[in-house]
Amino acid sequence: MVEALHEGEPAAVILDIMLPGENGLSILKRIREESAVPVIMLTARGDDEDRIAGLELGADDYLPKPFNPRELLARINAVLRRSQPTPAGDRIEAGGFVLLRKRRTVSRQGQEVELSATEHRLLEALMSYPGTVLTREALLNYARGKDFGPFDRSIDVHISKLRTKTEQISGGKRCIKTVWGSGYMFEVEEP
């Protein structure tokens, strides 16, 4: 599945919960670690708890079985429309850095580095609000699409990796600032 995501870059994924071997919700979680591809859950498990779990793990839509094939097609088309960035929406620029959403890269002065899915979403959040302190919880929710506890420190590891990558392309310039007791901020140079 992960290999297929990297090689084929599908437009969308239709995923069931009850699968042989691995649970569909577990697969969805792994997809979200690797990709922002739209995912529609299509499953016989349509109770509230299953729908909520699927949506909280990052599914873009959820359709219980039995279903009307025309409704599935309409939902696929709607998800694909929503996933298409606006022409100006594919890139974010801040502090001399350019983040490209489709390519999942960040560049500065012609140098470019690739980002993991989580790193990309974190940097997207930070660059979308330059000069604004974002809490760890807000960044984790943005990056993973679900709530984490206030003491989850995995954000620090991702920020450290992001700093290393951004410093590689900026000649050592540190753009992600730690605001002690508050969170992180994407710093922009004053003109």
Provide structural commentary.
- The chain is 41% helix and 19% strand.
- The protein is an alpha/beta fold.
- The chain folds into two domains: 2-83, 3-Layer(aba) Sandwich (Rossmann fold), CATH 3.40.50.2300; 87-186, Winged helix-like DNA-binding domain superfamily/Winged helix DNA-binding domain (Arc Repressor Mutant, subunit A, Orthogonal Bundle).
- The strands form three sheets. A four-stranded antiparallel β-sheet has the order 4-5-6-7, covered by helices on one side.
- A hairpin with a 2-residue loop joins strand 6 (105-108) and strand 7 (111-114).
- The longest helix is centred in the middle third of the chain and has 15 residues, at 69-83.
- The N and C termini lie far apart (47 Å).
- The model has no long low-confidence stretch (mean pLDDT 82).
The arrangement of helices and strands along the chain is: HEHEHEHEEEEHHHEE
Main pleated sheet = 4 strands, antiparallel
The H-level CATH homologous superfamily of the largest domain, spelled out, is Winged helix-like DNA-binding domain superfamily/Winged helix DNA-binding domain
Instruction: Note the beta-strand portion.
Output: 15-25%
Shape: elongated
Mean pLDDT: 82
Q: How many individual helices? A: 7
**Structure class:** alpha/beta
